[in-house]
Amino acid sequence: MAITNTKPVVLGRIGGLFGVRGWVKVHSYTDPREAILAYPDWLVEIDGRWQATGVEEGRPHGKTLIARLVGVENREEAARYINARVGVERGALPDPGENEYYWSDLEGLAVEGRDGSVLGTVGYLIETGANDVLVVRDGDTETLVPFITGDVVKDVDLAAGVIRVDWDRD
After folding, report:
1. What is the mean pLDDT of residues 150-160?
2. Domain range spanning residue 125?
3. Who contacts 46 (Cβ-Cβ below 8 Å, separation ≥6)?
């Protein structure tokens, strides 16, 4: 498995094992969830390093997805992938539309409130059903900011690394 220096776009994570023949359960962040299986060349993060691998086969299974990675033939080999993030090269993805962003592009950006004060940085995002939510970290404090373009999120400046919001900590 080759190590890569590329920062991939994260599309999901491997959540557990399935069976004894090297299959893993995949938690997909894509919509629809099966779309992650359309990318045969995955990057998986193991011990903080991204490594290239391929998807031998995959399919929906109940409320989850299952996949078998290239060269993984048994449960013991598959176990090293538990909790690994799954990503793909940016070039494999379509460009996001206007006012659309890949979550991995937002993670780490500074978030400024309406008065220009820095609320913190985007640690991660969560999906609530109604809208996505930025989890903004400032030290030990987390602030939840709904990602509603126009109403709450006023501007996303990827080049400057800043998201401007009509929101405050209180």
Report:
1. 94
2. 103-165
3. 80, 81, 84
